[in-house]
Write a structure and sequence with these properties.
Length: 239
């Protein structure tokens, strides 16, 4: 049975795409089949981060029934399968987001995990994703503005009967002007699955169009993303 995991946040720029890509690779390393879906149709980043700058087959074309599932699925050298969204604004304008549910229907029973890189905010798209996903992982930064936006996303997930696996606290640096892990847990009331520090290796991996977990598997950040993968795989075994 395929498990659909939505990776969500209240605002953009908190590190959703980086988190999705690295968790996916860590799951692949555990022998599981994973597909990453870039469901951020307005401002997609998965294909760009992985070096696929102008994909011919995209989620947009699948939703318009112009391509089938195989034609929009790409295998990265790291072992991650991805379904990219088009970076083209005209492609975005031509795509009806009301059809998003179709990608869930077609991927069900095909792989072990589908990780969805979701749009930020609380619009129609994110509600469709939360409605059709099994669980969500909240990505946030250690500042009050980001945490309060994450809290809104948590409430949206609950409203869609979505199970919240936990929180990724991203871009921390243990400075005196940021919230601590305990303070974040107290506000959001969910466990911290990973605490990812600011890391130059993440920037290097993005520049090299490949997951940090693939090229720097022993790094501190890779170990944090691996914790999330281990949690999801253990959870799958116990169900």
């Amino acid at each position: 049975m395929t498990k659909f995991i939505a990776v969500v946040s209240g605002k953009g720029g908190v590190g959703k795409t980086t988190s999705v890509i690295n968790i996916a690779h860590a799951i692949v390393q555990k022998g599981k089949n994973v597909v990453v879906v870039d469901a951020n149709l307005a401002t997609p980043n998965v294909s760009i981060q992985l070096g696929l700058m102008d994909p011919k087959g995209t989620l947009n074309k699948f939703l318009r029934k112009e391509k089938d599932l195989k034609e929009v699925t790409y295998l990265h050298e790291s072992g991650i399968s991805i379904i990219p969204a088009s970076p083209s604004y005209s492609e975005f304008q031509k795509t009806n987001t009301q059809n998003l549910h179709e990608i869930f229907d077609h991927l069900n029973e095909t792989v072990d995990f589908v990780l969805i890189d979701s749009p930020s905010g609380l619009g129609y798209d994110i509600n469709q994703i939360l409605k059709h996903s099994d669980e969500s992982i909240i990505v946030t930064n250690p500042n009050l503005s980001s945490i309060m936006d994450a809290l809104k996303t948590i409430r949206a997930a609950r409203a869609n009967d979505n199970v919240i696996a936990g929180v990724i606290l991203n871009m921390t640096h243990k400075g005196k002007h940021e919230l601590t892990e305990e303070e974040v847990k107290e506000i959001l009331h969910y466990p911290i699955l990973a605490n990812v520090r600011r890391d130059r290796k993440i920037h290097k991996s993005v520049y090299r169009h490949t997951p940090l977990h693939y090229i720097y598997p022993r790094s501190r950040s890779a170990k944090e993303f691996r914790k999330v993968a281990e949690y999801l795989c253990l959870e799958e075994q116990t169900q």
